[in-house]
Design brief:
With 325 residues, this protein is of the alpha/beta class. The chain is built from 13 helices and 12 strands. The strands form 2 sheets. It has a 6-stranded parallel β-sheet, sandwiched between helices. Strand 11, helix 12 and strand 12 form a beta-alpha-beta unit. The C terminus is likely disordered.
Length: 325
């Protein structure tokens, strides 16, 4: 194959982990060109992957509510971009209507998608000429890689190498100069995924005792209030200013440690192979967790939040990579 389009449009964590298939495909098909179709909200992620040639930013939210000629123009432009290349294969790793529409509009003669029973939305099946079945005996990320490897008959490495090349900041962020620090990603998309404020404060206190400064990111006004509540009991901790995804990624690259709930930004830390502890409270750790010995630990599970003691033990478990923890 000479040119492949991968379609994985959302969400942040899914798009991050799906990048590993790019390296697999390049090793399987030397010289192949790989493009990526993604929601424009997450377009930075495949842009950070040197193995991706073109990033096609689909304005998916505008498909739902067209309010102006500008929206129509953006939609038409994205369709034109899809049809600029003739793809030998289109691989829809998402399996819902929006990804199926993107796949169909390419006009490729080989459009791969999940079998109907495994689709997120069964009606998406109209778009595919070929099917693959997901592997359910592994976590979501490894299963996705195995699915493609078995479909096209190539082997994969057990742990994929990191693929990201994060743009360097013009200057080292002021908040992280001359000190080892840990990022505490407390924020979540759903309340049931949160970990208690007192637990975050306890972890932060332990880090301060080790000479590690806790830095606390946030994205909304509610998350800012929660960050301030965590920091209130931690003399020396810092609440970061509001940051873009790229700025957060730059902080992650400089961090000695990342501790956070099951969210996209914590999955970014695992993909960058930073010492990371992932906390699960209301999602499946076996399905969404990441385990890399000495580097990444996932603790807790759906309906069983981990204790502070478990978190501190996990931090010890990822401290053997030379990080100042």
């Amino acid at each position: 194959m000479k040119r492949i389009l991968v379609v994985k449009v959302t969400s942040l964590g899914d798009v991050i982990h799906a990048q590993s298939v790019v390296g697999d495909l390049h090793r399987a098909f030397p010289g192949v060109t790989i493009d990526w179709a993604v929601d424009d909200a997450f377009a930075d992620i495949p842009r950070w992957n040197p193995g991706v040639a073109r990033v096609l930013c689909a304005p998916l939210r505008r498909f739902k509510k067209m309010r102006s000629l500008g929206d129509l123009s953006a939609i038409w432009s994205s369709i034109s971009d899809l049809r600029q290349e003739r793809y030998d294969a289109v691989l829809d790793l998402h399996g819902v209507y929006k990804s199926a529409i993107i796949s169909f509009l390419t006009r490729s003669k080989r459009r791969f998608g999940y079998s109907a029973v495994n689709l997120g939305e069964r009606g998406a099946a109209f778009a595919y000429t070929h099917r693959f079945a997901p592997r359910n005996d592994a976590n979501a990320w490894e299963g996705m890689r195995r699915t493609l490897s078995e479909t096209f008959g190539y082997s994969i490495e057990a742990v994929p190498p990191t693929v990201f090349s994060i743009p360097k900041p013009a200057a080292k962020p002021e908040a992280v100069k001359d000190m080892p620090f840990a990022l505490l990603f407390h924020a979540t998309s759903k309340d049931e995924k949160k970990w208690p404020t007192a637990n975050w404060t306890a972890v932060g206190r332990s880090l301060l005792e080790r000479g590690i400064t806790p830095l606390i990111p946030w994205g909304s006004e509610g998350e800012l209030r929660e960050a301030e509540a965590i920091a209130q009991g931690l003399e020396g901790a810092r609440v970061l200013p509001k940051l873009s995804i790229q700025e957060i990624a730059q902080h992650v690259e400089l961090a000695a440690l990342v501790v956070g709930t099951d969210t996209g930004l914590v999955h970014l830390a695992t993909a960058l192979r930073k010492p990371t502890v992932m906390i699960f409270t209301a999602t499946s750790r076996p399905h969404f967790g990441v385990e890399i010995p000495g580097v990444v630990r996932s603790i807790g599970d759906d309906g069983r939040p981990p204790s502070v003691e478990e978190a501190l033990a996990a931090i010890e478990g990822v401290s053997g990579r030379g990080a100042a923890i």
